[in-house]
Amino acid sequence: MENNSDVRAHFIMAVCGGFFGGYAIFGRMKVFGSAMTANLIELVGDLLGRDAKEIALRGGALVLYAGAMVLFAVLSEKTEWNLKRLVFLFEFLAIAALAFMPGNMDPILALYPVFFVTSFQWCVFKGADGYACSTIFSTNNVKQTVLSFSEYFLTEKGRHDERNEKLKKGKFFGGTLLCFHFGVAFAWTGLHFMGYAAAWLCLIPLAACVCTVEAGYAAERKERSEKENSAGQAGKSFLTRARTLE
């Protein structure tokens, strides 16, 4: 039950990741706020070109992105907080901030909430079912999907366990890609009809993930309670038999 819940939550968070990525690219002049590759390349160009404003904006984005990772590390080591629930809170706040960012803002500055919240999401929702898999961008997911299906077809049919594992892995990473790009399409459609207020639409998959995670926790509590009750009943039975023997 826990494993199924984790996988469902992973796929839903990939929808959220795709939504944030699509919202950033389609709504803010093709700036991708969910990864640092393009931002760091542009930052190097700004440094060489000595564009102080762009250096400050992109440097700030880097600080936020890295700061979210530092925050995750500190909270993981120093607290007992439920970080999945904290992701949900951060994502709600990011959605609200994005919805009210004016259209004439600098696109990098307008995406500061995305730089922070997707980085934190990546740290907390970092995979499921034994696979490390990003829910905020797709490069490695494409690689793993293609390699897994290629290896599945190349593996001899007599090696059933190996083929089944390759197929399972390909389906997992491929499913993540599909969910991510569904979120991208959802963002594009929302921006087309609602403008920047489309950020609120991300509350739909976010709410679905909250329900999924909480249902998983409830199932865990029920299973733990049943085990404790079973252990208690076994203990009572043992004592009863011992007293009978006396």
From TrEMBL:
Keyword presence, Cell cycle: no
Family matches, as InterPro entries: DUF1275
Lineage: superkingdom: Bacteria
Keywords: Membrane, Transmembrane, Transmembrane helix
Positions of transmembrane segments: 7-26, 55-74, 86-102, 108-125, 172-191, 197-219
Region (Disordered), start-end ranges: 224-246
Keyword Membrane: yes
Protein name from the UniProt record: DUF1275 domain-containing protein
Organism, as annotated: Ruminococcus turbiniformis
